[in-house]
């Protein structure tokens, strides 16, 4: 097992230590992309709850506490003017219950009213009526030969909510990849800075040695000039790496959602352990678990809903309405139903399309083509997933040999630098040549770090592609939000 441990050591006083796992936890609540996904889920959640609430019994009360009118009216039948004065109060209590299974509805209504009506016919007589009345009736409405609109609306909202959850889970996986990438960008920037500081320390030490030898006339002045140039380049390298680190840190802070001015300290440990991956199992698991495939299937399901709506254009349809009730009126409220009158009614309405010039047929065919296209895209997505997993698998298999080679390169570069440093101190090597060996050592250290990071990110890619953590040998927990 190879281990590269790195704890950033720059002025830790007042700094916030952040590990990779800690950064991911912070991003779960602070990342703008995650927040947008959560708000999207919340919106669909409210819509779905509202639709479910609309399927329950709805109670309402309509009141007209007082109404008065006095009007002069001409009766054409009797060619007479008459004056009508009316005062009334009315209230209606109603209970409406949608029927999800059939798409119909049933309602219970009760209208209680009091009316005082007077009619005076010119030069003839005056009629009046003052009484309470109550109308209690039950209605049933049922559409026939058409699709269940209530059920489809509910199913569509449930699919939208599921899709929003899937999008949130995908965002979390994408965020993990983004945060990991930027975390290691900061890591490499700091590693570059530390190596630059080490180079400056070595260059400063070598400069002092060369300076003393030149002053003692043991070396030519040209070596001192080269040593001064190496020292200046080492100082400039520190400034460049400090700038790169500051830029990488700000991008990282923004992505995880913390204040740009917060002083942070990254803590990480890179290891390279051989991880066994079963390619056939990886492909099978991905095809059964990938969220994008489920999203594609949801799109196809919603297209079938669109097909039903399209078929309902210019459709043959019937609506049945049945009403059963009793009506009563009396001057005394307690005797309203002394002589009740039943008032049943049955109604049937038909919508019969005759000719639409082929509009419905063409629209249905358009939706059918769209569904075929979406099924084809689903097949292509499955092929692409297989290709991506195989590519990631092959890449993972090549990483361990690369790491071993990078480690040996660092060991060789360290030995080479130490040998040539002695030659430089003894005056057998020029400053230009030593600087090349120093640069080579720094480059090999960065290469080793990059190899370890590459292995880590390749395993993460395979984890995201298969939704299986091959390091822990367990499925990825998506923790979808439930309604």
From TrEMBL:
InterPro entries: OMP_efflux (IPR003423), TolC-like (IPR051906). Keywords: Cell outer membrane, Coiled coil, Membrane, Transmembrane, Transmembrane beta strand, Transport. One of its GO terms (cellular component) is cell outer membrane. The keyword Transport applies. One of its GO terms (molecular function) is porin activity. It holds the Pfam family OEP. Residues 147-174, 364-423 form a coiled coil. It comes from the Bacteria. The keyword Transport applies. Its main location: membrane. SUPFAM superfamilies: Outer membrane efflux proteins (OEP). It is found in: Cell outer membrane. PANTHER family: OUTER MEMBRANE PROTEIN TOLC (PTHR30026). Belongs to the outer membrane factor (OMF) (TC 1.B.17) family. This is Membrane protein.
């Amino acid at each position: 097992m190879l281990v590269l441990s790195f704890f950033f050591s720059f002025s830790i006083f007042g700094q916030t230590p952040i590990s990779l796992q800690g950064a991911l936890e912070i991003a779960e609540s602070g990342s703008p992309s995650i927040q947008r996904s959560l708000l999207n889920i919340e919106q669909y959640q409210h819509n779905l709850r509202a639709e479910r609430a609309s399927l329950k019994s709805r109670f309402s009360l309509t009141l007209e506490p007082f109404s008065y009118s006095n009007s002069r009216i001409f009766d054409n039948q009797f060619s007479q003017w008459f004056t009508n004065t009316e005062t009334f109060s009315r209230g209606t209590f109603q209970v409406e219950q949608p029927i999800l299974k059939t798409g119909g509805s049933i309602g219970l209504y009760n209208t209680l009213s009091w009316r005082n009506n007077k009619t005076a016919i010119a030069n003839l007589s005056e009629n009046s009526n003052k009484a309470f009345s109550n109308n209690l009736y039950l209605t049933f409405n049922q559409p026939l030969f058409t699709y269940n609109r209530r059920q489809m609306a509910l199913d569509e909202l449930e699919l939208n909510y599921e899709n929003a959850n899937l999008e949130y889970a995908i965002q979390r996986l994408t965020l993990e990849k983004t945060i990991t990438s930027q975390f290691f960008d900061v890591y490499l920037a700091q590693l570059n800075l530390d190596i630059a500081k080490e180079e400056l320390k070595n260059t400063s030490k070598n400069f002092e040695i060369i300076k003393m030898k030149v002053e003692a006339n043991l070396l030519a002045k040209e070596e001192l000039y080269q040593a001064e140039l190496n020292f200046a380049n080492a100082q400039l390298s520190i400034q460049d790496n400090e700038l790169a680190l500051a830029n990488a840190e700000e991008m990282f802070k923004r992505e995880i959602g913390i204040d740009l001015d917060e002083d942070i300290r990254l803590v990480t440990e890179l290891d390279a352990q051989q991880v066994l991956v079963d390619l056939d199992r990886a492909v099978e698991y991905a095809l059964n678990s990938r969220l994008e495939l489920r999203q594609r299937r949801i799109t196809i399901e919603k297209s079938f809903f669109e097909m039903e709506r399209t078929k309902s254009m210019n459709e043959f349809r019937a609506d049945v309405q049945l009403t059963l009730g009793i009506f009563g009126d009396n001057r005394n409220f307690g005797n309203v139903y002394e002589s009740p009158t039943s008032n049943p009614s049955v109604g049937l309405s038909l919508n019969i399309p005759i000719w639409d010039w082929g509009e419905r047929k063409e629209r249905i065919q358009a939706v059918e083509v769209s569904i075929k296209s979406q099924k084809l895209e689903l097949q292509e997505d499955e092929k692409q997933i297989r290709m991506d997993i195989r590519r990631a698998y092959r890449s993972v298999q090549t990483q361990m040999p690369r790491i071993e080679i990078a480690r040996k390169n660092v060991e060789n570069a360290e030995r080479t630098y130490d040998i040539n440093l002695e030659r430089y101190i003894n005056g057998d090597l020029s400053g230009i040549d030593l600087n090349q060996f120093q640069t080579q050592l720094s480059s090999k250290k960065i290469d080793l770090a990059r190899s370890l990071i590459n292995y880590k990110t390749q395993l993460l890619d395979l984890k995201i592609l298969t939704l299986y953590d091959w390091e822990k040998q367990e499925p990825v927990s998506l923790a979808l939000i439930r309604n």
